[in-house]
Amino acid sequence: NRPAFTCMGKVMTYAEMDRKSQAFAAWLQSRGLVKGDRVAVMMPNILQYPVAIAAILRAGLTVVNINPLYTPRELEHQLKDSGAKAIIILENFATTLQKVLTATPVKHVVVATMGDMLGLKGHIVNLVVRRVKKMVPAWSLPGHTPFKTALAQGAALTLKPVEVKRDDIAFLQYTGGTTGVSKGAVLMHSNIVANVTQMRLWVEVGFRKKGRPDNLTFICALPLYHIFGLTVNAMISMELGGNNVLIPNPRDI
Q: Which regions span the lipid bilayer (predicted)?
């Protein structure tokens, strides 16, 4: 019951993350997605992000992280190039997907809201984001599944075991595209494990000098869709059993 991730004052424990990611993984399997299929994630740093990533990997699928600020052209390129069959996206950016969806291989769309995992105050957060700050442009994605609905449906399903090997692809991590179109770097499960192990050794050097704090807390202002924020922050935090405080907008840190 240690806190795993905190966002906007809401704490998600490791046990809660385990249950939610298992439910979401089972839901993904129920959509006909099989080992090796690509699933895109297009969200800022919110609690749904680590749940989605854990679920995708638990189902034996491959994560395709996408910058939520991408233009329609950039989004279309990445979805087509990766061959993504599903996408989990925050409603704030759904209008971008709407413009290109039919030109991509995506068959399953899951739409999250800022307040999905914030408990009772989530309704207030959604109201403010939509009506006061007007951060959600009008959108229409017929046949989409709300994130909370996918979790609820998945909770009634059984996750089928998937054998994942070290050389299986965990992530298709795209470059920034500064010298041309964005290119997908293939990251195997062994690559991620090696990177996290390297970071653990580096962090533990500091523990030897100053001692390990009782409540290890990380601040994650860098976006999780970026490889640095993903591995050096989120994954090392989980490896060490720490609490990762997610910052949706780094300008508000």
A: 216-236
pLDDT in tens, 196-208: 999 999 988 888 8
The b-or-e profile of 161-191 (16+ CB within 10 A means b, else e) is ebebeeebbbbbbbeeeeeeebebeebebeb
pTM: 0.96
CATH of the domain at 168: 3.40.50.980
Place of tokens 């922050």: 233
Give the separation between CA 166 and CA 179, rounded to whole angstroms: 31
CA 44 to chain centre: 8
27 neighbors 131 (Cβ within 8 angstroms)? no
Domain count along the chain: 1
d(CA 94, CA 76): 13
Give the range of the structural domain holding residue 60, as residue numbers without chain letter: 3-252
Torsion of CA 131, 135, 137, 140, to 10 degrees: -80
Summarize pLDDT for 225-237 with one digit per residue, the tens. Answer: 999 999 989 999 9
